[in-house]
Amino acid sequence: MATETLRDLTFSIEPRSFQFLTGPSGAGKTTLLRLILLSLRPTRGFISLFGRETSTLEKDDITTIRRRIGVVFQDFRLLDHLTTYQNVSLPLLVQGKEESSYRAEVQELLKWVGLGSHINAYPPVLSGGEKQRVAIARALIMRPELLLADEPTGNVDPSMARRLLRLFVELHKSGTSVVIATHDLSLMDQFESAQRLVLGDGRLHIYE
What we know:
Elements: E1 18-22, H1 29-37, E2 48-49, E3 52-53, H2 59-66, E4 69-72, H3 84-94, H4 99-112, H5 128-140, E5 146-150, H6 158-173, E6 177-181, H7 185-189, E7 195-200, E8 203-207
Parallel strand pairs: 1-6, 1-7, 4-5, 5-6
Antiparallel strand pairs: 2-3, 7-8
């Protein structure tokens, strides 16, 4: 019988909430984020997102729900043939928005994450930390209702990590629910009012 990575989890992510997801390596943080994103299906139990139980949703419905979620992956998932600006703009382009309506916002966001001088650069020439910041900007540009970030500050220096956390906090203040998976205790200590979700031995412990 296969070992379950996670089991007997019951929790909710409240609207406009902020939480850090932590725990030792291999505890299942990435797995839990993928379950919330619906890129994995639970072997038992159910997941409800935005008031809808997801086990019976059609593919188009899942796509619609995912558009309400911003995601920062550990492997970035940038498109190498697109520039930094184009990668960040892509979610808006897919929605059919006119470039004139978002050009200035994308440029300002890239300046905020320290990539104003790399706006026309392609991913293969960017460092790991720069790619991470492109991925963060792409997730934030849609102002999602829920943001899932998997180790979003793992490839940046402490100064940039603090700056990115401020960006996440501002997004939270605007109404987005935020879940950040991280090992970085110093990062969590900077926002002590955030709830902490701690994974261990397949179970989830919640600390206010």
